Amino acid sequence: MTEKEARERFIDSWGTMGALWGINASVARVHALLLLTDGPLSLDEIARHLAISRGNASMSLKELKTWGIIRLVKAPGDRQDYYVTEPDAWRIFFLIARGRKRREFDPLLGVVNETLTAMPKGAGAVPGRIRQLQDLLQTLDWLGEAALANEDRCRTALAMMSKLLGAKKKG
Amino acid sequence: MTEKEARERFIDSWGTMGALWGINASVARVHALLLLTDGPLSLDEIARHLAISRGNASMSLKELKTWGIIRLVKAPGDRQDYYVTEPDAWRIFFLIARGRKRREFDPLLGVVNETLTAMPKGAGAVPGRIRQLQDLLQTLDWLGEAALANEDRCRTALAMMSKLLGAKKKG
DNA sequence: TGCTACATTCAAAATGTATTGAATGTTTAT
DNA sequence: ATAAACATTCAATACATTTTGAATGTAGCA
Known about the structure:
mainly alpha
């Protein structure tokens, strides 16, 4: 495979993955392009490379900015806005995870708690089932909070595990 | 809040959450209804309760069946198909997670590996960046495989952590 | 076999989401 | 103040997904 093909496949894959997980494909593709690019890219260059409109590029960059995973850089004597991605894969991961947890997961946990409160206790299997669901979500919540509150520790712990698992696999 | 309101909120929330994570809202709502229902439900009852067509209900049930999180039950002397949900929240979680990992995550990891292979090593920050991304995905992959291969152990471990964390919070 | 009671399929319609690009805002330089 | 060079917005349009329901398939029963 040529490098060019590989780049295209990466961008497409990233976009597809994004779409499957509720992230707009254009947004994901813009980010993929930035990941594959060393220097800063202008809105124009991004729109041209991905064959999307400037408007779309602008919106996509706006969203990536609100997530905090890209950064605006200015070149002296140049009015254009240039963008670079946050280079650290782990930080990108945490930034996205934190946002989605707050916006999407936390409200669900709230609703499950409410549901359980409003539910009569005696009747059948349902209350126990929802109770167990609450338990599961609560555990995931604690786990998530702990991980997100201690990015560095979480990272280190996972890296250690990774090494151990990698060694195991080889040995 | 009345019980009825709570049930509606739960179903809506489950559907919204599903939609945000790339699961069809009708499918998620059908499952939510089954979670909230003690006995088996027929296709007709489901369509009526959720105010969706029989066709839609049929498709949604089909999808839930392929995921293995609902089960068909037959009543003697009744030709209708009735459905119940897998009652165990953890098993539901694992069944969904396993399927999505295989279908969505694994191919992405493959593409990232290819990208890295096809990429010249010397040039700038990009190869290192993609390398780090590969590392992160690899770690998540190992973690996921380990968890999915040992449902019961994973469950126990998380339950223990949950208790410890819960105790900490109160104490 | 033919009838009945159901489930399933799938083309068409409805709905929802993403994209475009002309119009509008903003900043900088003169 | 004006123009030039850009970014942003948003109404219109294109595209994709979801939903419907009539047509079709299937299994049980007489």
